Every structure is written in structure tokens, then in C-alpha cells.
Hints:
Elements: E1 6-10, H1 14-25, E2 29-34, E3 45-49, H2 50-58, H3 62-68, E4 70-72, E5 75-78, E6 84-88, E7 101-105, H4 106-120, E8 124-126, E9 130-136, E10 139-144, E11 149-152, E12 154-157, H5 164-169, E13 177-189, E14 197-200, E15 206-211, E16 216-224, H6 236-243, H7 250-256, E17 264-273, E18 279-280, E19 283-285, E20 291-292, H8 300-317, H9 321-351, H10 356-370
Parallel strand pairs: 1-2, 1-12, 2-8, 5-14, 12-19
Antiparallel strand pairs: 3-7, 4-7, 5-6, 9-10, 10-11, 13-16, 13-17, 14-15, 15-16, 17-20, 18-19
Helix pairs in contact: 1-4, 1-8, 2-8, 8-9, 9-10
The structure holds flavin-adenine dinucleotide (FAD).
Amino acid sequence: MSAARTALVVGGGVAGMSAAIMLRSAGIEVQLIDIAADWKMAGAGLTISASTLRAMRMAGLLDQVMEEGHTHAGIQVCDVQGMPLRVVQSPPLPDADVPGAGGILRPTLHGIMSARLRELGVPVRLGLTATAIEPAGTASRVRFSDGSSETVDLVVGADGLFSGMRKLLFPEAAAPGFTGQACWRLVIPRPPRISMRHFFLGGPVKVGLTPVSQEEMYMFLLKHVPDNPRRPAETQHEVLRELLSGYGGILADIRAGLCAQSPIIYRPLESHLLRHAWWRGNTILIGDAAHATTPQLASGAGMALEDGIVLADEVARAASLPEAFANFMRRRYERCRMVVENSLEIGRLEVAGAPAAEQTAVVERSLAALAAPI
Ligand SMILES: Cc1cc2nc3c(=O)[nH]c(=O)nc-3n(C[C@H](O)[C@H](O)[C@H](O)COP(=O)(O)OP(=O)(O)OC[C@H]3O[C@@H](n4cnc5c(N)ncnc54)[C@H](O)[C@@H]3O)c2cc1C
């Protein structure tokens, strides 16, 4: 039984590629479109939690992620001088034997997932978006930006934070909101002593390092920027140097190496959650299009991956799309809401300068909740 024979996925990030891989693996004829002509996963690295590694295993991606990325146990919490305070262990998962944590470069994960799509024979069309969705009997007719159209049983909107599909489906939905914080990210060579994720707490900003391969790691730095200033890219190394000025140990070494050519990615943080069903008719939103989180729990991509897995599972098992979508919402809403809201809560604690123990308590509580089977 399957609630759909054909599907179109709009958006080829983690959510869209996960949905396409899993729908195709469930025997559904699926195609994927992405608005970008130069399709890639922009950005630095991704921190991966144990539950994300479990999702990668379910999607058949784990071996390659472990080979091309980096896996390790837990988080080393340090003070501003880089002195180790304690290790936060990831709770073991009841249903999967996977490492506690990991990291991977975003382009590397894109390469792994897009290669899997190719293996499965999923057609991918680039530089294309959906401009309208109309009922066509029990199916949906999707009109594309190049004037063409296609009729499919199921449409999946996976087009990210500023989703055009969300505007088509729920024009009344509020736009994502700025959270008051911004994030600087930078990929740099990894010394062997940074063999697990590090947090440096207790200073004016939150800084962390995640190993993403045998040779590289990425640094992230979160800061309260209530007035959301626009900063020219060529001065970001000066801003970052200033922000790292009170830090010792490896962060002082990284600071000393900053220059105008440092590939710094700066991003004000935005978040949103659709607090009602994520579907209308034959179309459902997944990933950041439905629930976009800030990076505090490093679980946005994990939720995106899980969405694709659960959607395909429910569509393959249900007799109708409304039944599949209702079951999907039951399995996904609370989990994604928890990630969005607890990430915001940690952000508020960071801005208030709350003690490290208070911040890590929310992280530990959230990781324990994420350990539950999907
Ligand atoms: C600073 C920062 C750091 C983060 N760090 C982590 C982390 O360490 N770990 C983690 O798990 N998560 C992290 N996240 C969250 C994670 O990046 C997102 O949750 C995840 O990328 C969402 O995937 P997605 O596929 O839903 O959306 P996206 O990755 O945004 O992909 C959307 C895709 O849709 C395409 N698209 C956009 N508009 C259209 C359109 N109109 N038509 C067709 N295609 C379209 C885009 O080209 C893109 O390919 C972080 C987020 C931020 C902001």
C-alpha cells in the first residue's frame, strides 16, 4: 500500500534530499527541483548529534559520513582560557549503536546525498521553482518558473527558511523572526588535540569548535547583536579578532591567524515554527520551511533528515495522503517544536550570561529527549 505513486520535492537541501532518497527507496517515483542553478549546500560545517547519526544510518548514509566526516563522543566544555571543565556525554540511543557526536563539511554532505540520489536515478532539475499548485483530480498540478507543469500525487516543500512553498500554501504565516543573535563560522585546519566538539563558556560570547574531517574543524561564535548590524565581508576578520580578544589557548591561536582572506561566514539568526499542520491538500512542508531553528542544539539538519525519513515511511504505509500527513505530524511536531524552543531558550541564557551549568543543563535535557526513537 502507498498513499502516492509519484512525488515532486521542491528544494534540494538536507530535508529535500532526505525525502527524495527515502521516497524513492520506498518505490515512489520522485523528482527534485532546486531554485539554485549552481546546486550546493552553502556554508561551513555541520555539527551532528547522535540522533542525526542515527537518521543518517536509516537513510543509508552513515558509513560515508563516518569516512568523509568526523565522529567522536560528547562535548568538551572549557573555560575562556581553554581549560577543560567537564565532558558532556551524549546519552546512548536505545535503538542504534552510533557514535555520540560528529561533524561534516556541508559541501561533503551535499556530495554524499546528491550521489545517492544519482544512484537511485532520481531526476534533479536546477534553476527551477514552483509558482502554483492546483488540484487535478486526486493529484496536484504544479506549475514551474520555466512555464512547464507536472501532475504528481504528492508535493513536498523543502525549500528552507525563506520558503516560497510556505508562501504558496500558507500566505498568512508570519515571516521568520530575528532572534537577536548572530553567528560567525570559519573552517580551519584541525590540530590532533581537538578530537571532539569543544564549547568555551563563561566569556562574553559563546564559541565552539567541531571537527569535520581528519584535517579540518570549524569554529562558530555566537553573539548578541540586538541592532542586527550589516557588516561588510572584508571587515569580518577584524570583528572576529575583537570578539576573540579575551580568549586563550587554541582560540588565541585561531585569532592570531585571522586575516582578510579568512573564509568567514556571518549570519544573523532567524527562527520560526508553523504552529499548525504543515500540509494543505497534497502538499506538505518539511525541514526549515516548517520549523527553522537556531544552531544552539545543532539539530536543524538532523530534524530535516528525520522529516524525510518519517514522511516516506508514513506515505508508504498509509492508504491516503491525509492519513499519512496526520501520522507524520503526530511523529514530528513535538520533537521539532522542542528543538526550536529549547534552542531559543539556550540563546536567551547565552544573552543573559547565565552560568555554564544552566546552559549545559538545557543541552543535556534536549539531547536526552532527542535520543527517543523517531
Ligand atoms: C548559523 C547556523 C548554523 C547551523 N548549524 C547547524 C549544525 O551544526 N547542525 C545542524 O544539524 N543544523 C545546523 N543548522 C540548521 C541547518 O542548517 C538547517 O536546519 C538545515 O540546513 C535545513 O535544511 P533544509 O533542507 O530544510 O533547508 P536548506 O538547507 O535551506 O535547503 C533549502 C534548499 O531549497 C532550495 N530553495 C530555496 N528556495 C527555493 C525555491 N523557492 N524553490 C526551489 N528551491 C528552493 C535552496 O537552494 C536549498 O537547496 C544551522 C543553522 C544556522 C543558521
